[in-house]
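Quick question, first post here. What does this chain look like in 3D?
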Amino acid sequence: MAYNKRLDGRKTKELREMEARSGVIPNADGSAYFRVGNTVVYVAVYGPRPAPRFLANPTKGILRFHYNMMPFSGYGSRIRPGHKRRSQEIGKVMTGALEPVVDLSKYPNTIVDVFVELPQTDAGTRCAAISASSIALADAGIPMTDMVASVAVGQVDGTVVADLTYNEEAYDAIVSDIPVAVIHGSKEISLLQMDGEIKKEDLITALDMAVEVTEEIHCLQVEALTKRFMVQ
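> Answer (accepted):
Ran it through. Tokens below.
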């Protein structure tokens, strides 16, 4: 049976309910809270500060991400605490997604650490983390040429949809999950991953959908930062 009606009743391009705030962690240089559906992420930015000697780059500063899902954050079994290969992999993915818009050329031999904590998850975790990190970096005053917004698009039993939930990822049919990050101004894609199967023409449709719906996320990012600095 074709997937004609989404499990939570949303339209194909409709995102889950979202919420974003900046400046939520007082002792950080910059921070953000981002929620999409039941996925919640907090981000804290520290730096630029002197880099460890083995990482120092005399031509520019280094951007480094630390990604962590808390033990009871998600569906299913308890997540084992501590450093994990998946967390390290997602940290590198996030670096690649955000480095194109971060300019640390004026901060040689320094490092900017971005700590990402997820206390509650329901799919789309790396996408929510990227969107939140873009807010937190801007909140910290890190030089940026643009904002990056991220969403997972994909196909569930032949239907292309945006912002998949855990239940959609686990749907008993052919499913593809495609995390995408989009640089707002240029519409360039700074992250593209895929898990599952999808035809070429449907992939193109999904990517076009990602560029379209990340506009909504970008508006939320700007609103969070505007509210933060209007208050001060």
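The chain has one domain: 18-231.
The radius of gyration is 18 Å.
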